[in-house]
Each structure stands twice: as structure tokens, then as C-alpha cells.
Design a protein that fits this description.
With 249 residues, this protein is α/β, with parallel strands linked by helices. It contains seven helices and 13 strands. Pathway: Cofactor biosynthesis; adenosylcobalamin biosynthesis. One of its GO terms (molecular function) is precorrin-3B C17-methyltransferase activity. One of its GO terms (biological process) is methylation.
């Protein structure tokens, strides 16, 4: 079988954060499949067909990619960040499990990328330096009650927390509710980082405390990191550094 399928992460935005492995896959591909803004990050060239689709068409997009590979195409499915973190790798495997049995014979690989979570943490210092968890705050695919339960349990366990998809135009109150839950469970001085559009020209990093955080500080391009009780801030000339010591108890 000549076709193959690679599910790749394009990193958080800057071309320099695309891994050499992913760059090589894109150069060898005949087809790139993904959400339109991510497909547009792949430069057009002769011999490459770009298939862009809407953000809520993940399974259909995965099925299209699998079928193209079955027909002999060299297919790359693109996500931002890492493809295994709230991205297309899971969607492809969900389609694979439920779909055409012939798809299971394909050469399928997942190529990791630099996630927004790790890029944001690096910009701020090392807030994820000890135990942490990652929560998608979108309630499009799971109920708010489950999100709230996970928030409360993460605080109880004293994890640092990284939040994806905190606030959108269609979900303007979700992050406000998240802050309310955190304020019930955490001390007012808990450190919180708003890292927006990391590695792009629009990048901004804001370090504040839970008592001073507002919902408007986040949007869909923002990765939010909430420290644990042990997370510390180092003041210095210029931007402060935030880190969680590995010796935290």
C-alpha cells in the first residue's frame, strides 16, 4: 500500500517551533487536511493539495484523510500545537475504529509538536515544573458539571493547571464560572498566567493573581495557567519569572 497518513502538530504559531520531523512530512505530502487556519499555515506548492474544513468537522475530516491515504495519497493531518492534545489524533483514531476495516492496514503515524501549554509555560518560566493537569474549558463536548468537578478535584490535589479554550464568543460565561470556582477553592493570591498567541507577533504574557483576574483577560487564543499553592514569582527588572519548585509537597 503506497499511501500513508501522518497526524502532525504545527506548534503554537512560529515556524521555528515546527519540528524537523513535521517539516519533512509536509515536504513529502501530496495532501494536507485540517481546520482552515491550520491548513493555511502550510505554504502552497506544486504537487500539494490543501483540504481545509470547519472547526466542528473533525470526524468527517479524519474520514476524508483516511480515505485519501487508502487511495494512495501521502496525507498529513495538521493541528496546532501537539496533535494528541485536544486535537486531531484522537479524532482520526475514533474514525479509524468505527470506519472502513481497510483503513486499519494503513501506515499511520503521530508526529508530536510543541503544545501551546508548554510554549506558554516556557515563556513564563516553569509554572508546570511539578505535578500539573490540563483541562479543556469548552463544554461543547462535555457538560459543565464535569468541568467543574475536575476543577475542584485538581485544586484539592494541588495541581498547577493549564486551561485550553477558556473563553469564546459563543461561550462568554464559561471562564467567568471557572474563576468563580477557583475563588471558592483557592487563596486570593494564587498566581495565574494569561499567555496569548505565544510565539506570534501578537504574543502577550500577563502574570497576575486570582483576585485580580477578570474573564476579559482570556479569549480562544489564550492559554491560562493557574499555579499550585507552591508556585512562586521571582520579581526582577523586566518581566517576572514564575516557577513551581520540584520539591513541592
Amino acid at each position: 500500500m503506497s499511501g500513508w497518513l501522518k497526524i502532525v502538530g504545527l506548534g503554537p504559531g512560529a515556524e521555528a517551533m515546527i519540528t524537523p520531523e513535521v517539516s519533512a512530512a509536509l515536504l513529502d505530502a501530496t495532501d494536507v487536511v485540517g481546520y482552515v487556519p491550520y491548513v493555511n499555515r502550510v505554504a502552497p506548492r506544486e504537487g500539494l493539495t490543501r483540504h481545509g474544513s470547519d472547526n466542528r468537522e473533525e470526524i468527517r475530516r479524519a474520514e476524508q484523510a483516511l480515505q485519501l491515504a487508502l487511495e494512495g495519497h501521502r496525507v498529513v493531518v495538521v493541528s496546532s500545537g501537539d496533535p494528541g492534545v485536544f486535537a486531531m489524533a484522537s479524532a482520526v483514531f475514533e474514525a479509524l475504529e468505527a470506519g472502513d476495516a481497510a483503513w486499519r492496514a494503513l501506515d499511520i503515524q503521530v508526529l508530536p509538536g510543541i503544545s501551546a501549554m508548554l510554549a506558554a509555560s516556557a515563556r513564563a518560566g516553569a509554572p508546570l515544573g511539578h505535578d500539573f493537569c490540563c483541562i479543556n474549558l469548552s463544554d461543547n463536548l462535555k457538560p459543565w458539571a464535569l468541568i467543574e468537578k475536575r476543577l475542584r478535584l485538581a485544586v484539592e490535589a494541588d495541581f498547577a493547571m493549564a486551561f485550553y479554550n477558556p473563553r469564546s464568543k459563543s461561550r462568554p460565561v464559561g471562564f467567568e464560572r471557572t474563576l468563580d470556582v477557583l475563588r471558592e477553592a483557592c487563596e486570593p493570591e494564587r498566581l495565574i498566567i494569561f499567555a496569548r498567541a505565544v510565539s506570534t507577533p501578537e504574543e502577550s504574557i500577563r502574570v497576575t493573581t486570582l483576585k485580580d483576574a477578570t474573564p476579559e483577560m482570556a479569549d480562544m487564543r489564550t492559554l491560562v495557567i493557574v499555579g499550585s499553592r507552591q508556585t512562586r514569582l521571582i520579581e526582577r527588572d523586566g518581566e517576572p519569572l514564575v516557577y513551581t519548585p520540584r520539591s513541592a509537597l
